[in-house]
Amino acid sequence: METIVLDTGETLVRDDRHWASWADWLGVPPHTLGALVGAAVAQGREATDALRILRPDMDVEEAYRARAAAGRGEHLDESDLYQDVRPALAELRAAGIRVVVAGNGTVRAGELLRALDLPADLVVTSDEWGVRKPDPEFFARVAEVAGAAPEATLYVGDHPADDLFPAAAAGLRTAHLRRGPYGHWWAEHPDVVETADFRIDALTELAGLTAPSPAPTPAAAEATGVRRGALRSVR
Asked: Is 181 in contact with 38 (CB distance < 8 Å)?
């Protein structure tokens, strides 16, 4: 492996603050919103559907802008990182691996992430690129900035439909991370088990995956493509 690309939310960054801030904005207990997020995850829906359950007419983007205008927008600091992030990324770079952080997020999220000065060669968000996962164009951009062949590039994430399946469809190697609601709930689903090149419980396991390995055969790639389709609804 020459390049490792990592998702952001629930891969590098804990979403606790994100959902707690939304609960505060909506005036509901954090555990209420958390339970609704869990229900959405278990049903294979978008996590933001939890907000629309509480406020059916909500325009999430408009509400985000209103929060920012009220001084209650996004915030991110060292306490939001999972504890294995810095040691894992530093170990990878010390081994000569190119490290890229690329996930769904706002322009503001990109600014906040870069301000943390992570051990990474590039940190970028979907809004900065103008395309969001799981759009194939996002992963085309990932392949472009990776600086390595697809078979030498590993995409790491927790979300089957947003991370694992589209990255595999783009020809990248994949690692499914058992972390966060999506990562835990869907970890043992047959499509996840069979599609992921690797399944990990911590980012510190990545350093052991960097040894060169053969690309999948055309037959294996075709079989993986069939399996990917079965979970497209898991958002």
From this structure: yes
